[in-house]
Amino acid sequence: MVTLADVARMSGTSRSTASRALKNDPRISAETSERVRLVAKALGYRPNLAARTLATGRSGIYGLIVPSRLMGDVYGAQLVSAVTDEVSAHDGGVMLWLSHDRPSRAIRDTINHGIVDGLIVSILVQDHPWVVELLDSGLPCVLIGRPEGLEEASYATADNITSSWALMRHLREEGYRRLAAIRGPLGNTDADERHSVFVEAMGGVGELDANLVAVGDFTYESGYAAATALLRHRPDGIVAGNDEMARGAIDAVRAAGLRIPEDVGVSGWDAVRSPSHGDMELTTVRQDVAAVGQEAVRILLDLLKGEQGPIQRTLPTQLVVGRSTVRSTRPGEGMPT
Asked: Which pLDDT tens digit goes with each residue over 33-49?
């Protein structure tokens, strides 16, 4: 096994200098650092995890907890890839855990035994007590998604509010008046924020027709079923909480013999892949999942460097207008902000 002493000897430095160079210590000259890194690469040197942990108090390993259901779609794959790439860029590693409901005992034991330096947690449901447990554990922790009622939590999230208002203004300007919603799961942080804008834009809870609101689970199938039920109440537009449900709604509208957007417009949210369905360009909101994952890593590294928390960052999103909502006339006056 190649050791740090081997790297130091072959690069003509001391062991401590070689160690500092591999950690990008600014006290080591660029020339020396480059020489040490080239030697380490040529020899195939890999730091011993146990030795590094003893020497520095850090393992360089970060935990990533993701709900298992996320791994079946593009969002989950992009998120895991972004976090892994960003951690690798800082010479660290990722320990990925898939959680059905709450972290297992094995996950909690790993956390408590100090194997990981910090955690990144993708939360989909706000009221899980285990999220509070993680925050109270003392281990640096960053959430992906803005948690309701946890002001002390550090997080990275996409801006669900601004572009949702832009979407609602667009729909009003296109002449939609009887809008229906297929919201995401109750208690889901993203779904709740997006739907709150829909409710407010429609005049508040008191003005909302309960027949024009359905709950989905972010899947194509739930969008199709919800839209089929909503169409019985003759909406002129359907606002889906994500693109998969919007795609289901498009097929349901067409199955009912209706035209898009002339009879019923359909919008989505996410754009984590191509915002189109067959020949229909979907109006949606684009979020940068990779950027959110990368920002979560940066926040965690800032906390580990001693920056005072909570650190909370919201990344911009963008309205993308497609043919699924654009009509030839625009009698609407627009939506208030």
From this structure: 999 989 988 888 866 55
- Rg of the chain in Å (alpha carbons): 24
What is the C-alpha to C-alpha distance for residues 192 and 241, in angstroms, rounded to an integer? 9
Q: What's the number of CA atoms in the CB half-sphere (13 Å) around residue 296?
A: 34
Q: Which residue has the tokens 């999220």?
A: 131
What's the pLDDT tens digit per position in 116-165?
Answer: 888 898 865 545 666 777 777 678 889 998 877 777 889 999 999 999 99
Length of the chain (residues)? 337
Q: Give, rounded to a whole angstrom, the gap between the first and last alpha carbons of the chain.
A: 63
Q: Is 237 helix (H, G, I), strand (E, B) or coil?
A: strand
Q: Is 222 left (phi over 0), alpha (psi -120 to 50) or beta?
A: alpha
Crossing angle for the helix pair 160-173 and 189-201, to the nearest 10 degrees: 40
Mean pLDDT lowest for which of 63-72, 78-87, 265-274, 298-307? 63-72
How far is Cα 157 from Cα 170, in angstroms, rounded to an integer? 24
Measured between alpha carbons, how far is 142 from 135 in angstroms, rounded to an integer?
9
Tell me how far apart the alpha carbons of residues 201 and 168 are, in angstroms, rounded to a whole number.
Answer: 7
Q: How far apart are CA 159 and CA 156, in angstroms?
A: 10
Q: Look up tokens 């804008």; give the residue.
A: 197
